[in-house]
Design a protein that fits this description.
Layout: E1 4-9, H1 16-27, E2 35-40, H2 46-52, E3 59-62, H3 80-86, E4 90-93, H4 96-101, H5 106-118, E5 122-127, H6 131-135, H7 139-154, E6 163-166, H8 180-197, H9 199-204, E7 206-210, H10 215-222, E8 229-232, H11 239-250
Parallel strand pairs: 1-2, 1-8, 2-3, 3-4, 4-5, 5-6, 6-7, 7-8
The structure holds phosphoenolpyruvate.
Length: about 250
């Protein structure tokens, strides 16, 4: 049985003061014990969030990691081993904002994926199509290729300690959400792709949906058989809203 997961991507938001407020708000939430909950603050605030959420049953993750696990001469980057030292348990890999705005290729993302795992953290691999690709009916091909790149590089067993987040680019930060049926169709295809390699692994991997998830649409999305929770951007910056999404995942 897969445990549901809700992850909050805070993106490039927050000051020490607003992060402190968000931590306070999260600590006041009644959160379901049946859901794995994680937040991904900016790297600058990871330490503050790890300290502030002690005892809150909320894991802390990073939004990115360097292509190598160990410390070294790589100006501006953060090694996975440093993230572990700071208290991170998970790392987002391949968020569309990094793929599209920063030009991160599958090759670079594969190195990040491997570095995160080798340091003992869980990569949350983000995949998804643009609006243009959806309109050209290339969704399953694009998503299949992004996931296939990791499988090809490391084999299916690499997915055992990983989470996959399907995030249609056109739904991120736009207020447009995939319908539960649209999301389920892609999630089922992702699971079928995994099952072609290993059915046991496929049944165990958590597939999160991301793209304008909010309290009002979370329950319906999470009720679909292959949607195991959500990766939440904008709505995760509001503790009450995020708490409500977590509770929807617990029902
Ligand atoms: C995201 O950034 O991963 C995301 C899903 O954002 P939003 O929920 O704001 O669409």
């Amino acid at each position: 049985m897969r445990r549901t997961m809700v992850a909050g991507n805070w993106k490039m938001h927050g000051t020490r003061a607003s992060v402190a407020e968000l931590i306070d708000g999260l600590a006041k939430q009644t959160l379901p014990g049946s859901v794995d909950i994680a937040v991904f603050p900016s790297s600058l605030h990871v330490g503050q969030v790890v300290n502030g959420l002690q005892g809150a049953s909320i894991a802390v993750g990073a939004q990115d990691a360097a292509v190598q696990a160990d410390q070294g001469a790589l100006t501006g980057e953060i090694a996975s081993s440093q993230l572990v030292d700071a208290g991170c348990k998970l790392v987002l890999v391949g968020h569309s904002e990094r793929r599209l705005l920063l030009g991160e290729s599958d090759e670079v993302l594969n190195r990040k994926f491997a570095a995160v795992q080798s340091a003992g953290m869980t990569p949350v691999l983000c995949i998804g199509e643009t609006l243009e690709q959806r309109e050209a009916k290339q969704t399953l091909e694009v998503v299949g290729q992004q996931l296939g790149s990791v499988i090809k590089a490391f084999g299916i067993q690499a997915l055992v300690n990983a989470v996959v987040a399907y995030e249609p680019v056109w739904a991120i930060g736009t207020g447009l959400t995939a319908t539960p049926e649209q999301a389920q169709e892609v999630h089922a295809a992702i699971r079928a792709q995994l099952a072609k390699e290993d059915s046991e692994v496929a049944q165990g991997v958590r597939l999160l949906y991301g793209g304008s998830v909010k309290a009002a649409n979370a329950a319906e999305l999470f009720s679909m058989p292959d949607i195991d929770g959500g990766l939440v951007g904008g709505a995760s910056l509001n503790a009450d809203e995020f708490g409500a999404i977590c509770r929807a995942a617990g029902n």
